[in-house]
Write a structure and sequence with these properties.
Elements (H helix, E strand, L loop, with lengths): L3 H16 L5 E4 L7 H9 L3 E5 L14 H12 L8 E5 L2 E6 L8 E2 L2 E6 L2 E4 L2 H9 L21 H11 L8 H7 L10 H7 L3 H4 L5 E7 L5 E8 L3 H15 L2 E6 L2 E6 L3 H14 L9 E5 L3 E7 L20 H9 L9 H11 L6 E3 L3 E7 L7 H5 L9 H14 L5 H8 L3 H13 L3 E4 L6 E4 L5
Parallel strand pairs: 1-2, 8-12
Antiparallel strand pairs: 2-4, 3-4, 5-6, 6-7, 8-9, 10-11, 12-13, 13-15, 14-15, 16-17
Length: 459
């Protein structure tokens, strides 16, 4: 019979394997002397766990913690500069190497300095090393805690949504175990990063964690014709912002093969990248500020507080990857919103050029501002010439579009409807409630597993 402590550790390691590699987890199929790079990378970041005997795809190949292997790994740690003390355990068929966050950063091994970037161990250039540790704080904002916040203030619905979107296959697990596995909580408290993603009410504890979505008439800030203030978790902020942009940008459709493809006047992939960058890189310690999405007749601006990290200049953009909020970035990586290597600036530029548009402009003074010029041919064309604009044309039209969609897709969820029609999930829910009250729509079966039935009035 296994000892209870061993069983708990097995459960923790199994969860790490299911969640996959990330900022604080690395898989290695077998031991090699090069794992000293991973030891250094973890010590230079938030600490982490190296699992020997696990392939990149998460399948277990197996590794045994012999006395010889233990001596080799400990020797690698001692030979780092400064030395790194690691903890080793045989956990089932896997060897777990636990590396603490270093107290004497930066750390190096025989081949140089390394750090974690999402799920990758990356060698630091001289400039990256200088910038990374110019920004280093003893306790970054995302690692701090709120005294009044407890595990009871975490939303299990938000955890389920995160797990689903991240594609993590896990069975029942306690809230505290899940948050600790992602390094957004310790034994007794939830860290700011955990609050930003999973709190029932984020705004109650972190007022600055909000996003303002604005659409203006004209090319200045005088006349607002649509506004939303999103005071929710970061994934919701991202999704609501994408829906808002789709609602207010012009779009054309092209038939490619048997499928219809919507093409927005500004490539959505470029705007998504800018949104994720704003949420990952903003300085959350600055109170009284928020991320802003501003849509004008001639441009879209996405703005986040904080400017560039210390030591990083505008000329370094796109060539040097420094992340102010490593844990928040890791969570967005797990949600498949960002790639492993920091190529966001280059991706935005390439997407705009491929669409025949000017490269985005980046202004990093105090606030980081990404500016995307709208197409001179398409910007506001629908409003001036009366051409069809499919999204956001009024409450009545939105309701009719929802009914038409549900005629074809009776099991569509509010989030799916919002994504297709360019509305926000909250707006869709309001439309559905009104349609049910008006006896235009009814639900058949349970909330999960049921379907919508559109009611046709004979009169």
């Amino acid at each position: 019979m296994k000892r209870s402590g061993y069983t708990i550790m097995e459960k923790q390691v199994e969860l790490l394997i299911r969640e996959g590699e990330g900022l604080t987890v690395e898989f290695k199929e077998r031991y090699t002397p090069r794992i000293d790079q991973d030891l250094v990378a973890f010590a230079n970041a938030r600490g982490g766990t190296l699992l020997l005997g696990v392939r990149d795809d998460g399948t277990v190949s197996g590794e045994r913690l012999t006395n010889d292997l233990k001596a080799k790994i400990n020797s690698l740690g001692r030979n780092c500069s400064p030395p790194i003390a690691v903890n080793l355990s045989q956990v089932g068929d896997v060897v777990a190497v636990f590396v603490p966050e270093g107290l004497e950063k930066p750390y190096s091994c025989s081949s140089g300095y390394y750090r974690r970037l999402d799920a990758t161990t990356q060698k630091l250039s001289h400039d990256e090393l200088r910038i990374m540790f110019a920004e280093n704080e003893p306790l970054p904002f995302e690692e701090k805690t709120v005294r009044e916040f407890t595990f009871d203030d975490i939303s299990q619905d938000k955890i389920r949504a995160f797990v689903k979107e991240a594609g993590i296959q896990i069975s029942s697990i306690s809230v505290s175990e899940f948050l600790r596995s992602l390094r957004v909580a310790d034994e007794s408290r939830v860290k700011h990063a955990g609050i930003l993603f999973f709190a029932k009410d984020v705004y109650e504890y972190l007022h600055q964690a909000q996003m303002t979505l604005l659409a203006f008439k004209g090319a200045d800030r005088l006349h607002i014709y649509d506004r939303r203030d999103v005071r929710d978790d970061l994934l919701t902020q991202f999704n609501e912002a994408v829906a808002f942009l789709k609602k207010h940008l012009n779009v054309r459709s092209e038939i490619r093969g048997v499928n219809r493809e919507d093409i927005y006047e500004i490539p959505i992939e470029a705007l998504r990248e800018a949104l994720v960058n704003a949420l990952m890189h903003r300085d959350y310690s600055i109170t009284g500020t928020q991320v802003s999405v501003e849509i004008y007749d001639d441009r879209v601006e996405i703005i986040n507080p904080g400017g560039l990290p210390k030591g990083l200049s505008a000329k370094d953009l796109g060539t040097v990857s420094i992340r102010r909020n490593e844990v928040i970035s890791d969570l967005f990586f797990r949600l498949h919103k960002v790639e492993r290597i920091g190529m966001g600036i280059r991706k935005m530029k390439e997407a705009m050029v491929a669409a025949g548009l000017r490269e985005p402009i980046f202004e990093p003074n105090g606030f980081f501002r990404a500016i995307f010029q709208r197409s001179s041919e398409l910007a506001m064309k629908g409003k001036r010439e009366g051409s069809e604009k499919r999204f956001g044309e009024g409450s009545e039209k939105s309701s009719e579009k929802i009914l038409a969609l549900l005629e074809k897709r009776r099991t569509a969820s509010a989030r799916e409807i919002a994504e297709i029609l360019g509305l926000t999930p909250r707006a869709v829910e309001k439309h559905i409630a009104a349609l049910k009250t008006a006896d235009r729509l009814k639900r058949v079966g349970p909330a999960r597993g049921g379907w919508w039935e559109v009611v046709h009035n004979d009169d």
